Amino acid sequence: MDRLDELLTAADPLLGRVDQVLSEIGAPGGHDVWRELRRVRLLPGDAARAVAGLRPTAILDAAPELRADARAYADLADALPLASGWTGEASEAYEKARRSAAEHLNGGPDSLGHRMAATADLADSLTAWMLRIRADLAAVLTEVMPSIEAIVLITGDQLPSDQAAAAAAIGSRLLRVVADGYDEAEDLLTGSAELQTPLLV
Of 11, 30, 49, 13, whose CA–CA distance to 165 is shortest? Predict the structure, then answer.
């Protein structure tokens, strides 16, 4: 359990109120929250819970295993015996097959070893991203929970327009950190597009 998990339990009533007000009353026209809602396509509470559902530990252990597999492919490629001591067409055919197998195992960007290493790099990057977005969201929750806007929403005895403005102010801050974080994740996945291309056997 990290800071976000701790805060989310305490913030749940506020997040529920933000979502309720935005759904039932709306937000002031032209407010930034409308742009952030279009970016995320979730209400602030739902977006916060989606981030809280990210579990870095689920992939944290994957990277070392993938790197070990990459080393194993490299070792296997190096261990393929040369066609020493024999000559002729059979020797040439074997050597051609040996080089092809070695290259497939660990010879370039499309080799199994390279793919494993690149996948491990992606796992490390995604783990760091999850930790970062969770920490960023926790920081925003720490700031908005004791805010005047939060008091307006929790007490619920203000004018609907005041409640809408308060919900929009909190919602836009929460949604912005989620939207920016998910843009970063999309960039990470776009940068690893080659991993989505099947290997030719």
Answer: 30
- Sequence-distant (6+) residues with CB within 8 A of 108 are 114
Burial class of residue 74, CB neighbours in 10 A (0-12, 13-18, 19+)? buried
Q: Are 8 and 49 in contact (CB under 8 A)?
A: yes
- Residue 4, judged by CB atoms within 10 A of its CB (0-12, 13-18, 19+), counts as buried
Q: CB count, 10 Å around CB of 188?
A: 13
Token pair in block for residue 120 = 């491990």
Distance CA 129, CA 139 (A): 15
Residue whose C-alpha is closest to residue 194's, from 107, 126, 102, 117: 117
Beta-carbon contacts of 72 under 8 Å, excluding residues fewer than 6 positions away, are none
pLDDT tens, 79-101? 888 877 777 888 888 888 888 88
CA 55 to CA 146: how far, in whole Å? Answer: 27
As given in the structure block, the two tokens for residue 197 are: 């291309």
The pTM of the full predicted model, rounded to 2 decimals, is: 0.82
Q: What is the pLDDT of residues 96-130, one digit of tens each?
A: 888 888 888 887 777 888 888 888 888 999 999 99
Tokens 């690149």, residue? Answer: 118
> What is the rounded distance in angstroms from the CA atom of residue 115 to the CA atom of residue 105?
10
The residue ranges of every structural domain in the chain are 3-56+119-196, 62-106
